Every structure is written in structure tokens, then in C-alpha cells.
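hey m, so remember when u said the C-alpha cells were messed up on ur end? i reran from scratch. heres the input so u can diff it against urs
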Amino acid sequence: MMPQHQRLRQQQALMQQQSLYHPGLITHPQIEPILSGNLPPGFDSTTCRSVYVGNIHPQVTEPLLQEIFSSTGALEGCKLIRKDKSSYGFVDYFDRRFAALAIVTLNGRHLFGQPIKVNWAYASSQREDTSGHFNIFVGDLSPEVTDATLFSCFSVYPTCSDARVMWDQKTGRSRGFGFVSFRNQQDAQSAINDLNGKWLGSRQIRCNWAAKGAGSDDKQRSDTKSVVELTNGTSDDGQEKVNEDAPENNPQYTTVYVGNLAPEVTSGDLHCHFHALGAGVIEDVRLQRDKGFGFIRYSTHAEAARAIQLGNTRYLYGKPLKCSWGSKPTPPGSSSTPLPLPVTGNNIGFSAMDIAAYERQLALSKMALMHQ
């Protein structure tokens, strides 16, 4: 085995030799790759000198992989793990700048007609286990949307833990859909309600609950046991699967979450407003006034679903309501007695501020139509 001091001298010599072939790394600021949303939270790339290489064609050999990646800098090691359909591997550099250059220049490079994926390498223990998280399906993604783009879009919700775009291994192009994971079910439901139909890139995206049990495409891994499973959202006939445990499909969910409430809203206001929607029989109303949200329990799942649909189109005290499913199903044996309508001086229906907000929206809509 080579002594440590000789190994260090060899490393320095290789780095000096390599700097002759890559003077830009010495004389110009280093180009850093954009961090992907697939990397573990808190991942520090400034100390990483290894890259992960995925979607490798079966005909690629380890010497060939080593030759390709040595084009960006001196290698400390190279390992290829063979699989039937597509292999993967890890490449270690003496200098992290060469690793960063490999990610920027070699990611997407076609080997035997198959594009490789290159990203920072990390231990499987660094990635958060999302198998118990709440996953949503995101469809109609435009071709330019990447994992990092998708993660950036949904990371406005604090419990967003992962985001993946599904890629075609043969073409290297996006398959037009992906998956986002959340630690909190309410954040996942809010993301579905808030971002469904919104523009991401050049298309309006579709958001819904993901199915359980199906496996995702190629993911970074050290062995098959460390793979974090995510659904691909489709069945054998190409149709989206239905997640029976999701709130919109589970009849035990009868509670509506109502967010973005103005500070002056009372529980009576909330009750009257949703009573006026005519969605169904209200059995309970609870308000967290200081936090700006509340909950309304209906007698049936169908009534709650209709209340969510209608509530998301309404304003209360000048603010648009944000309605979604409550985070927990209604406990068995809960009271099924209709809640009496509170007596108020004037039925809330729509306040003057609501009407003013509606008129503003109507005016903006008219201007948009005139512009078209």
C-alpha cells in the first residue's frame, strides 16, 4: 500500500498537471451547478468531491466511464455498479472544482444513445426517508421543468421534503409529470388547492394526490435497499391510479379547513358565510382567530367536497378564502346534530368589502378580455 506522504505528492502532481488542461478553473471564477431538489436538505456541496452517475447504458464499461470523467479533472476513484436496464456509478475527484465541472458539462451527455445523469453524490443515510410522507402528483409539466425547478415551486410550503420529475431513460426528456413529497398532510392538500391550474414554465400544471405502492424511475442509490419509493402515478393501462386513503376519496373526511381569514372574522361570520353557500348541513364550526384559520364539519363527505369547491371562489371581509380538507378524518360517533344558525344583526352573506373585492376582480377580468 502506498504511504500517505507519497499519495499526497502524487495527488498534488496530478492537480498541477490537470490545471494545465483546465486553466479556466484557476484564472476564472468556478461555474457551480444548480443544486437539485433531490439532494438532502442541508446538503453542503462545498466539501463534496464525488459525483453520482445514473442512467448508464449497459454497454458502458468502468474504464470507459473513467476515461470520460477524467476529461474534467484528475480522478481519485471510479466505481460502476451494473444493472440489467441501466447501470449507475460514482466518480471521486481530488478537487471538488473538477467534480462541479463534470456536473455542468457531462450531465445529459449521451453514451450509446442514452443520456447520463450527473449530480453530487451523497450517502443514503443523508437523505430523509420520505416513504411515510404525503406525496402529490404533478402533471402537465413543460419540458424545461427540472427537479430543482419543481422543488423551488413547492418549497414555499415549509414541510416540502422532496421533488422529482420523471424522465424517459432512452431520450433523456421529461415525461411531463413528477411527484412532490410533504411531511405534513395539510401542506400537501394546500399545495394541491393553491397550485392546481397555476403556470409553471410554459404550461398550467395539474396537482392531485399520488397513488401508493408504485416505484419511481431511476434514483440515486447505493443499493436497492436504500431506494426511496415514490409512485409513478399511472396504472398498467396508462391511467392515473386512485388513492383511496386520500381525503377526497375517503368518506370519513367531512371537515373543511378554511384559511386566509381576516382578523375580524368571528365563528358566527364563518358559519353564516358557509351556510349561505348551501353546500349541506353544518355540524360544527371552530375558529383559530389568532392564527387566521378555522374548521367546518359537514354531515357527509360529499357536502364537505362541495363546500371546498364553492368556498375557494369566495371572499370574506375582502380576503379570498383558501379551502381544503381537514388533516384528520371525522372520529366515529361524532355528533350528527345540525348546528343552529347563529342570530346576527345582519346575515354576513357578502360584506361591503366582499362586494368591492368582487368588483375589482370583475373589472380585471373585463380588462383581460378586452386585451385579448
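this time it looks ok to me. DSSP finds nine helices and 18 strands in the chain. if urs says something different then somethings off w ur setup not the seq
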